[in-house]
Design a protein that fits this description.
The protein has one domain. Helix 3 runs antiparallel to helix 7 and helix 6 runs antiparallel to helix 7. 76% of the residues lie in helices and 0% in strands. The structure holds protoporphyrin IX containing FE (HEM). Protoporphyrin IX containing FE binds next to helix 3, helix 4 and helix 7.
């Protein structure tokens, strides 16, 4: 089944139609989606600013990461669940939407960035955990994260303006 056919099937499905045609369902889910941004990107921001030595410099990096990460994962789950429901309702439209395509691409890279960081630079955290300044690799990961998540939010907002 081609991806476009799958999107058309989702769009035509009873479940997709109910969300799309309901007066309250789509706006309610989108409100949850917007609140989820605060939980996900808000907590990611805290870690990025610690990595850049801008915030919580007194706190060990691993302490900030371990306390914030559970909230970040909660935010991510909220975003994926609410996002999938929003997508399901208008899948055929989003498939052709350039802003939505940019958002998905940026989301994939934004997800890859912490995976690379945790499996490389962060392995040596014990050497710089208590220090105010962090190694260049950590700073690059922080700047990339801030840039990519800002891009996801801008593309997410732009989706409404690039639809047919
Ligand atoms: C994980 C992080 C995510 C972030 C930060 C994010 C961000 C956003 C933002 C800022 C909006 C615009 C909200 C508005 O204008 O009211 C939005 C809308 C949307 N998002 Fe996400 N999103 C995320 C994940 C996802 C995922 C995983 C999907 C789908 C699988 C998705 C699907 C959508 C859809 C369909 C819309 C509605 C677009 C519209 O018609 O206005 N999002 N998102």
């Amino acid at each position: 089944m081609h991806l476009m056919q799958l999107c058309q099937w989702l769009y035509d499905s009873h479940f997709g139609t109910v969300i799309r045609e309901s007066q309250f369902a789509f706006p309610l889910i989108e409100s949850v989606h917007v609140l989820g941004i605060a939980l996900l990107v808000g907590t990611v921001l805290l870690v990025d600013l610690r990595l850049l030595g801008v915030l919580m410099e007194e706190e060990p990096v691993s302490e900030v990461v371990s306390r914030v990460l559970p909230l970040t994962w909660c935010g991510f789950v909220v975003q994926v669940l609410s996002g999938v429901l929003l997508f399901w309702a208008k899948a055929a439209q989003y498939y052709e939407n350039p802003a939505f395509r940019w958002k998905v691409a940026l989301l994939l890279v934004a997800g890859l960035n912490p995976l690379v960081f945790h499996s490389t630079v962060y392995r040596g955290v014990s050497a710089w955990n208590e220090k105010h300044t962090t190694p260049i690799g950590a700073k690059i990961a922080g700047i990339l994260s801030l840039t990519l998540w800002s891009g996801v939010i801008i593309a997410g907002r732009a989706t409404a303006y690039f639809g047919k």
